[in-house]
């Protein structure tokens, strides 16, 4: 069994690898940065309210507002009123947003396949990354549940602060 220093060294190596991998993915597109990709992919995955996208991505209101504004101005997102409540912003990808997201994800998938081919167990790495995504979603849901009681009175559509 590895010693604590060995485990710590592996964890640091893994953290640094994830940081470098995000850089590889970000360079998949000259048209879409990683932050805007995350917003578009969250909306495409069914997160239709700006506050829900903010919570899923652990972004504060100013950050999500700026991203939504930029993506809307570029014609990649549209806003709509939810249930007659002007305070709640619903979000949808435009056709151009869907096209660009598909294009960027195709390039990202190719880069991911290339990285997986360079490892001893590419299929295992891919499966581990899927599990990592699920763990991130579970962590976000737990943090959201912990904060929800504190948000009562802040509006039904309130989102937690960044850091989730």
SSE order and pairing:
Elements: H1 4-26, H2 34-44, H3 50-57, H4 61-73, E1 77-82, E2 85-93, H5 95-117, H6 122-151
Antiparallel strand pairs: 1-2
Helix pairs in contact: 2-3, 2-4, 2-5, 3-4, 5-6
Mean pLDDT: 88
Query: Distance between the terminal alpha carbons, to the nearest Å?
Result: 32 Å
Structural class call reads mainly alpha
The CATH superfamily of the domain at 19-118 bears the name Winged helix-like DNA-binding domain superfamily/Winged helix DNA-binding domain
Report helical residue fraction.
Answer: 55-70%
What is the overall number of helices?
6
The low-confidence runs, each spanning 5 or more residues with pLDDT under 50, are: 153-164
Q: So what's the overall shape?
A: globular
CATH topology of the domain at 19-118: Arc Repressor Mutant, subunit A
Which CATH architecture of the domain at 19-118?
Answer: Orthogonal Bundle
What is the chain-wise order of helices and strands?
HHHHEEHH
Rounded Rg: 18 Å
Strand fraction equals: 5-15%
Which class of the domain at 19-118 in CATH terms?
Answer: Mainly Alpha
Give your account of this protein's structure.
This protein has helices at residues 4-26, 34-44, 50-57, 61-73, 95-117, 122-151, and strands at 77-82, 85-93. With 164 residues, it is mainly alpha-helical. It has a domain at 19-118: Winged helix-like DNA-binding domain superfamily/Winged helix DNA-binding domain (Arc Repressor Mutant, subunit A, Orthogonal Bundle), CATH 1.10.10. Strand 1 (77-82) and strand 2 (85-93) form a beta hairpin. The longest helix is centred in the C-terminal third of the chain and has 30 residues, at 122-151.
